[in-house]
Design goal:
36% strand; 8% helix; mainly beta; globular
């Protein structure tokens, strides 16, 4: 299982996100999703975290529906740059034979766990905890899932296009109901920011919107053909400091007569109003008289 995050369990400072699930009308969601950037600051290298829990709405204690595809789309303006860090060029055969050792350490993007549920009624372990290790490659994220009981190893490759990551879950046999596939029950990934030579693997959008949060969408398609979409909101920090307004003909200091200083303040207020649309949510308070520097525009 892969996702565009670099994982370390217990990463500090991860913002908690709120989730809005939109299943088909009248039906409970098959999954709950939360995700987060590790920073609230725009245009900044960032890590991220992801948590997904699955259940069968009609039988919460039973095996969940098996997911087929997970498509995550980061907020507009986000950047995923697979050329920023080292890449893993190992083949699937090399990954199956060597596991994580087949990839260079500098290509590590994320780690985590996924709990699978095969629906076994007994005699064979129903739940399996798999260690997830994700590595960077050109336009993709290579995932290695490994378990100890029973010993297994599965390799996957998630496609990265712009700010969208598409993961295809392996179709492993399982026991119905609700379908004959092994299902994901719990996924956890988390990661730190990755930067090499001043270039970031993942970067937050250049600005924080008026809502005060960045929205990431997740579309999950299931083996039975059902599809559900979920949105998460990541809090971000808005820069409310208004830009310095400079009015032509108004000089700094208190040398101007009072009437001229009042005129400069009025001109500043008009200029502020004209620029207000560029200060997302900022209050429009003119600088005090005497604070203007002359001769240049903002």
């Amino acid at each position: 299982m892969t996702h565009p995050t670099r994982a370390r369990a217990g990463v500090s400072g991860l913002a908690v996100l709120f989730v809005l699930a939109l299943p088909a009308a009248g039906l409970a969601a098959r999954q709950s999703v939360s995700s987060a950037f590790s920073t609230r600051t725009p245009a900044t290298p960032t890590g991220s975290s992801l948590a997904i829990d699955w259940r069968d709405p009609a039988n919460p204690q039973g095996k969940p529906y098996a997911v087929k595809t997970i498509v995550s789309e980061l907020p507009p303006g986000s950047v995923i740059d697979t050329s920023a860090i080292e890449r893993c060029k190992a083949t699937d055969a090399e990954l199956m034979a060597q596991g994580a050792a087949a990839c260079p350490p500098g290509s590590l993007v994320s780690t985590g766990t996924v709990l699978t549920d095969n629906g076994s009624p007994g005699g064979f372990p129903r739940f399996t905890t798999n260690k997830i290790t994700n590595f960077n490659n050109d336009g993709e994220l290579i995932g290695i899932a490994e378990s100890q009981d029973p010993p297994t190893r599965v390799v996957s490759r998630a496609r990265i296009s712009g700010r969208t990551v598409t993961f295809g879950a392996p179709a492993l046999p399982g026991n119905p109901p609700p379908d004959p596939y092994t299902a994901f029950r719990e996924l956890r990934l988390a990661g730190l920011a990755l930067v090499r030579g001043g270039r970031a693997y993942t970067r937050t959008p250049p600005a924080c919107p008026r809502s005060g949060s960045w929205i990431t969408s997740f579309t999950l398609e299931y083996q039975d053909g059902a599809s559900e979409r979920t949105f998460t909101r990541s809090p971000c920090r808005r820069d409310l400091k208004p830009p310095r307004i400079r009015v032509r003909g108004c000089r700094s200091g208190g040398a101007l007569p009072a009437a001229s200083r009042r005129g400069c303040a009025s001109a500043s207020a008009r200029r502020c109003a004209a620029w207000r649309s560029t200060w997302t949510g900022a209050s429009c308070t003119p600088p005090p008289t005497g604070s203007f520097a002359g001769g240049s525009r903002p």
